[in-house]
Amino acid sequence: MTQILSQISNPGDLQKLTATELDQLAKEIREVIIQTTSENGGHLAPNLGVVELTLALHLVFQSPKDKIIWDVGHQSYVHKLLTGRYNNFHTLRRYKGMAGFPKRSESEHDIFNTGHSSTSISAALGFAFARDLKKEEGAVIAVIGDGALTGGIALEALNHAGHAGNDMIVVLNDNEKSIADNVGAMSTYLSRIRTDPRYFRNKEEVEEIVRRIPSIGSHVLKVMEKMKDGFKHLVVPGILFEELGFSYLGPIDGHNLGQLREVMTNACRLKGPILVHVLTKKGKGYAPAETNPSVFHGVGPFDVETGKVKKNPGPPTYTQVFSDTLLRLAREDERIVGVTAAMPDGTGMTPFARAFPSRFFDVGIAEQHAVNMSAALALQGLRPVVAIYSTFLQRAYDQVFHDVCLQRAPVVFAIDRGGIVGDDGETHHGLFDIAFLRHIPELVMMAPKDENELQHMLHTALEYEGPVAVRYPRGTGVGVTLDEELTMVPIGKGELLRQGSDLTIVAIGAMVGIAEEAADLLEAEGIRAAVVNARFVKPLDKELIVKQARETGKIVTVEEHVLAGGFGSAILELLEMEGVHCSVRRIGIPDEYVQHGTVSVLREDYGLTASNVARVARELADTDRSWASIRKAPPAPIKIAFRGESR
Ligand SMILES: Cc1ncc(C[n+]2csc(CCOP(=O)(O)OP(=O)(O)O)c2C)c(N)n1
Ligand SMILES: CC(=O)[C@@H](O)[C@H](O)COP(=O)(O)O
Ligand SMILES: [Mg+2]
Questions:
Q1: Burial annotation 100-132 (CB, 10 A radius, 16+ → b, else e)
Q2: Which residue, judged by its Cα, is nearest atom 1 of ligand 2?
């Protein structure tokens, strides 16, 4: 099945292949990617769309001397297969297996780690500057999608690169899709280039046409030459990029390997910043993905024959409950508007968008703009709900601080994917939001213990006259019954779920269930643990927590979040400020990046399980042991690398 692919141990091997063999290789690559993602899940459609493009890049350029940077990196599977990772490919996105994104630690061909969008042009410019300062050789190529090009950093970098003029190539992989439909004026511009036949004429053809205009043709040409780039405003495609200082090549058929090789070779010879505009089809070669590229953008396991995605049985996801509740609330309150940064499906915003198209804003991959704009919407009396993944909200920290909270604008942040997200790994886990939000004055931050509490929290957030964040995890809810009537959750009030005199476990969000299970285990051993559902990260329920601390003298905190600056840290601060003497153990993620793997395996790894919470609580109840015993394994020593050393 993979007669050719299995022989490719590095990109140099491609040079030996005939055109027919390269076609066969493209087929094999598609088969392997379809088969592997059908078992492991993954970003299928983006990768099927770049098979020929990746082959062309590795045929023309010499990686790793020439540096290929993959924007987002979700489309780097073909690159991985061509750079010596075929044998390991079956471990894609699996625990301790190959990552779903480029990783420098995985291969010398992975030049720059990615996962978050729109960084490639900026990185490429950095590499180009470094090469030129160090007087080295080598091409630098950023491969960026039309969706990623809507991101601010990409536009900032284009602006800078066009001005700087250093040699670099931007390959724009235009498949007319982000995850959902791409949005924005740039996207409209790109589709004009695609669809207007005039744009497919090259400069020479256009010159010939003008020359033939009776009596004035040659005169017009002379004038245009004098005006330097003259008439390109009329007919030359990619004028926008040309005006920004790039030489534009394209648009070219991204599935025609011969044409791609030719254009890439030309791009190589040209000086200065070059933009190669490549037209591809997302999902190319697998009918279900071609028909439904949004579903197969990032997909769970599916049946290859039918294209049916295997559904997780069980309760509705937190995202679904958020989505339903928002719709319900929006029907009653027309001030509610919805905002997403290119994630309408993932955040559950699509039903809202369909029901209230004029009240819905997809801003593209532009989290900063989403938050900044929402502040203004809120100041005008509307109630914006910004539905955003925790990891992507990191992009908009300053807007939360400067535009929303400083003005006390009543924006609701529906922070999805708070916690471990699983197979996407270190770039995508939502493990920092409590730390980067809880120190911002005016912001209220809550996290529901289950999907029922989520609906009440959303309702509460929309009634509150200030900025509020509601954080909830990826995946299915607990399976509790949803109350029909929505009620207010008193701001800053936690919930004592269980009395106990030996110690108190204070948990937040999805960890509350684990804390309750731990308390069950402890009870069987005769240890009576109280359990508090904190509900609020900010403001903390001072009264309840201080009372529990005074009564039991021992607190274990549990959070699916980094320990540094997290929820447990907030409890420690509270106890210190209130002058309460109490032994505290914090369970959460230590000071390291969490790799990819299933949520359950990773929770096990980091001790976010009932048995580990019970173990820590037991130790605390028995004696005041040192903090070091909380972790299952001692932390790896940190090696500080000095210049010239690798870490
Ligand atoms: C900062 C950030 N926001 C959102 C995302 C989620 N995301 C991943 S890929 C993608 C769409 C990218 O579209 P495009 O660049 O056109 O690539 P395609 O999948 O079409 O090949 C989005 C929105 C992200 N990775 N990073
Ligand atoms: C590459 C990327 O950033 C997204 O496609 C992300 O993988 C989506 O994650 P979910 O599967 O959690 O929606
Ligand atoms: Mg795209």
A1: bbbbeebbebbbbbbbbbbbbbbbbbebbbebe
A2: 74
The alpha carbon dihedral of 94, 596, 389, 141 has a sign of: negative
Query: Relative to the CA of 417, which ligand 2 atom is closest?
Result: 12
Domain with CATH 3.40.50.970 in the chain: 5-196+227-291, 318-471
User: Length of the chain, please?
Assistant: 647
Q: How many helices (H) and strands (E) does the chain have?
A: 25, 17
Distance 72 CA to ligand 1 centre (A): 6
* Closest atom, ligand 2, to C-alpha of 389: 12
Q: Is the pLDDT of residue 632 over 50?
A: no
Domain 5-196+227-291, what fold? Rossmann fold (3.40.50)
pLDDT tens-digit profile of 315-370? 999 999 999 999 999 999 999 999 999 999 999 999 999 999 999 999 999 999 99
> pTM, whole model, 2 decimals?
0.93
Q: Which residues are catalytic?
A: 282, 367, 395
| Amino acid at site 268 | C
Whether 116 is in the pocket of ligand 2, judged by its Cβ within 6 Å, is: no
> For residue range 25-53, what is the model confidence (pLDDT) as tens digits?
999 999 999 999 999 999 999 999 999 99
Burial category of 47 from C-beta neighbours within 10 Å (exposed 0-12, middle 13-18, buried 19 and up): buried
The average pLDDT across 56-76 equals: 98
Q: What residues does 42 pair with on adjacent strands?
A: 299
What was the pLDDT predicted at 327?
98
Which class in CATH covers the domain with range 318-471? alpha beta
Q: How far apart are the first and last CA of the chain?
A: 39
Q: Look over the chain and give the mean of its residue pLDDT values, rounded to a whole number.
A: 93
Which segments are annotated as binding site for thiamine diphosphate?
Answer: 74, 115-117, 147-148, 175, 286, 367
CB 599 within 8 A of CB 475: yes
Ligand 2 binding pocket includes 298 (Cβ within 6 Å): yes
Mean pLDDT of 209-228: 55
Mutate to test the pocket of ligand 2, among 179, 318, 367, 421 (most ligand atoms within 8 A of CB): 179
How far does CA 185 lie from the centroid of its chain? Answer: 23
The amino acid at residue 626 is: S
Compute and round to an integer the Cα radius of gyration of the chain. Answer: 27
- For residue 421, the ligand 2 atom closest to its alpha carbon is 12
Residue 497: name the closest of 450, 459, 463, 442 by CA.
Answer: 450
Q: Is 421 in the pocket of ligand 2 (CB under 6 A)?
A: yes
Contact of 446 with 537, CB cutoff 8 Å: yes
Distance 48 CA to ligand 3 centre (A): 12
Is the distance from CB of 70 to CB of 114 less than 8 angstroms? yes
Yes or no: domain 495-622 corresponds to CATH 3.40.50.920: yes
Q: Find the residues whose C-beta lies inside 6 A of ligand 1.
A: 46, 49, 72, 74-75, 116-117, 145-148, 173, 175, 177-179, 282, 297, 341-343, 365, 367, 392, 395
Does the Cβ of 72 fall within 6 Å of ligand 2?
yes
Query: Which string of DSSP letters, residue by residue, matches 621-639?
Result: HH----GGGTSSSPPPPPP
